[in-house]
Amino acid sequence: MRKLVARRLRNLASFIALAAVVVVGEAVLAVQLYRTSFVTGWLLLVLIVGLTTYNIRKRLPFLPLGRSSTWLQIHIYAGLLSGVVFVSHIRYQLPNGFFECVLAAMYLGVFLSGVTGLFLTRAIPRRLASRGEEVIFERIPIFLKRLRDDVEQLVFDSASNVDSTAIPDIYLNHLKAFFETPRNVLWHVLHSGRPRRRLLLEINSQHRFLNADERSVMESITDLVKVKDDLDYQFALQATLKVWLFVHVPLTYGLLVFIVYHLIVVYAFAGGNL
Amino acid sequence: MTGPLQQFDWKSSQYERPTRNWVCGRLCEGTPCDFGPTNRGECQVQSTCTPEKVGDRFQCTRAAVHGGKCQNGPGPDGRCSEPDAHCQPHRSLFHKRRFAVVVCLGLSLAFCLVVFGSAAPSSLISPGDVTLQHSSVDHDCANCHAAAAGGFSHWAGNALDSEVALSDSGRCLKCHVDLGHNPLNAHGLSPKHLAEMTQRLQQSDESSQRHGLLALARLAPVREPNQPLACAACHHEHRGRTFDLTKMSSLQCQSCHVRQFESFAHGHPSLGNYPYLRRTRIYFDHARHLHQYFQDKDFKRLMPDGKSPASCSACHELDVAGRQMLTLGFDRTCNKCHADEIVDRDFPGLPFFALPAFTVPAAPDAGGEAAPADADESAIAIGDWPTNPGATAVTAIPPFLQLLLADDPGYQAAVKTLGPDAFSHLDRARQAHPAAVAKYLWSIKKLMHAVVEHGDKELERRLGPNQKELARLQPSILESLLNVQRRWFPNLKSDVESHEQGQSPASKRQPVSTAGAAIVSAAEHSGSGG
Questions:
Q1: b/e per residue, B266-285, with b = 16+ CB within 10 A?
Q2: CA dihedral of B28, B30, B36, B40, whole degrees rounded to 10
Q3: Contact B252 A246 (CB under 8 A)
Q4: pTM for this one?
């Protein structure tokens, strides 16, 4: 824990120092009548390209390119620094040209999705460990199928052993859809237990129609319902951990295209002489 | 209760490969096969086989990895009896994300090429509106940019030219034809002139404290003063209709200048005899003052009595010959609105010369009407004396003035009679000690007369050998005292001569132009000394 705090303090201090260098450096160059937009623009480009290489590095785990956790730390703080450079690049005001607005919107999309991802990757793992069994995301459909088979087995056994259709009816009316696919994804992301409580309440309300054997079966089914709900919780949060990258990564590559175009236009119309 | 869903062992736990492009089509049903699809998305399951005829019977040939020989075996006609269990593999999450990347790349590229790839640059790539002054030429980018003559390929070629901004400045000069022979040099000066000025200023020993940013800016490569500058180096366009193209911070101005200082109040080089000795370096913006500042209600509160200048004569006057229209001095023009911007608030000033408040009896008016009788009793023949000491007049004699009068026997005798705080109550003491009051006032007038007559030598003599360095303070105290004498005691010489000859000069109230004129402080001295 102490090591983590020390690392965070060291990285934060480095970030603040670099941000100060950027802001003061920009002010100094502005005083010297240098075209600071070119300087901050190149710096921003270097940062964005450097940030993009993290995505490439993840695909080359066999190369000795340093620890992935180190890369991630650099990625996070370089990303935050790029925000400072970006604000300096647009001269602390909103852009007013159409192309510049699109470019700025794309950058903000990448930056904000990155910040969102940072928040999610810090908040979700703790929640994942707090409820249910931690499972590999790709295997969740298999476990869903297993749970479905288990509960259907209980229902069929009950139907054949007891001369009553109460449990099959309850399953068909209240539980079948629940066991088919992952449910209540949004509720789980919002950390709400309302659907779970509502479903358990419905099951409990059926107890008065069941005899002792059926109640015993129903309790087993209730246990499976809880396991399924925990599995849905894992699915919802793990999917959230993956979905934000669907915004962050594609937008980054789109942004690179816009940057190249921006670079050509700027150099063609404003010249590259600082 | 149920057991754990997940088990990790070599037999029941497969190695997951989330970076594969395809996953088994039966995964969503919860029954994926052990093989998984190929990299091209083909199912590898072989549930059926091609039975082999051995003798007169067909035998199943399904490999062990695909489930081994089937239970039913092939039919008598040699056809496999197992159903085809091929699935349609699905794209993995990783592959979907990569697909999203490709789509986003394609859309971005298409957006750039379709929207901006026309033969001529579209207004969509403009980084913003140009200023109002340039709005008449913004319909065609080629008016200001050579790159606008072609399409995207032309821009790409033009982007490699590092002198674009400088060459585009030539287009500015098509309209701005009145910038002299060296329009791209600083202030339109020739390189030779700039080099001479730079060398001269570098040799001068005048130095002052520099702003921190300027000190840091010295670390960056310094621009060569003789090199031409693109117009865009100082005048940034495309920042909106109302953007001030001429706006530059004082630090930016100083970045090129050899002599640097902290602020206008601290360390600004002297302006010389503004504005007559030479043309001021400050270009007065007539258009902005007449059409904006003098019209705008917000600025009227800064003006004296809230009234803007009504005519040219508010700031200008004809010379004696009636040929030239001169500009009135700073204190009569700019000072009225801009004084507060220049006053050094941190150091408002240290008075070094002041006059005591003293009411001179009214002189007979033109009709010969005498002054009131009670005035005669305390009438002291003092000649000219400012009548309006002002609200800011000091109540105690400034130490510097006291130093100058330290060896004056008349002053010392008067102080002995009137007391050390006589400076503040001369009017009250005039009834009881008219002679001492007269000595006190004359000692000040004689001091000023001697300084006017003998200059620095008189100051040094009065200050003595220990403090004579005070007389050489810069800017010169003498200059301020001479200025004060002209304003407050225009007839000083004749008054003193009359007094020394034993005659009584006529006491006159000397009107002064500004309130608080009877005090000369270090701040005023610094400002007026220029």
A1: ebeeebeebbeeeeeeeeee
A2: -10
A3: no
A4: 0.65
Contacts of A261 in chain B (CB under 8 A): 112, 116
Of the candidates A99, A135, A138, the beta carbon closest to that of B116 is on A99
Place of tokens 């701005």: B176
Cβ distance B112 to A258 less than 8 Å, yes or no, reads: yes
The residue whose two tokens read 């809880």 is: A226
Chain A residues with CB-CB distance to B256 below 8 A: 33
- What separation in angstroms does the CA of B401 have from each of A178, A225, B26, B389, B408? 99, 99, 105, 16, 11
Which residue's structure tokens are 């089937």?
B70
B111's CB contacts (< 8 A; 6+ apart) are A102
Asked if residue B355 lies in contact with residue B395, where contact means CB atoms within 8 angstroms, the answer is no
Beta bridge partners of B509: B385
Asked if the Cβ–Cβ distance from B164 to A269 is below 8 Å, we say: yes
Q: Considering CB atoms only, which of B31, B147, B222 is closest to A269?
A: B147
Contact A224/B105, CB-based, under 8 Å? no
Residue from the list B6, B101, B145 with its beta carbon closest to the beta carbon of A269: B145
Contact map slice: B 124-143 vs A, CB within 8 A: 124-129, 141
pLDDT in tens, B37-74: 988 889 988 888 889 988 888 989 988 888 888 888 88
CB count, 10 Å around CB of B474? 8
Both structure tokens of A90: 């647009």
Give B230-270 pLDDT, tens digit per residue: 888 888 888 888 888 888 887 787 777 777 776 666 777 66
Q: How far apart are CA B325 and CA B312, in angstroms?
A: 10
Q: At A139, phi and psi to the nearest 5? A: -95, -5
Q: What would the pLDDT profile of B107-161 be if each residue is shown by its tens digit?
A: 999 988 887 776 666 778 888 888 888 888 878 888 888 888 777 777 777 777 7
Cα–Cα distance between B385 and B356 in angstroms, integer? 10
Nearest CA among B241, B228, B247 for reference residue B172: B228
Interface touch A28/B220, C-beta < 8 Å: yes
Q: Are B299 and B341 in contact (CB under 8 A)?
A: no
Q: A-chain residues within 8 Å CB-CB of B101?
A: 249-250, 253
Residue B465: pLDDT over 90: no
Using CB atoms, which residue from B23, B214, B233 is nearest to A31?
B214
Contact yes or no for B5 and A268 at CB 8 A: no
- What's the pLDDT at B372? 46
> Cβ–Cβ of B127/A35 closer than 8 Å?
no
Distance CA B447, CA B492 (A): 11
Question: Is the link from the previous residue into B275 a cis peptide, with omega within 30 of 0?
Answer: yes
Q: Tell me whether strands B351-354 and B519-521 are parallel, antiparallel or unpaired.
A: antiparallel
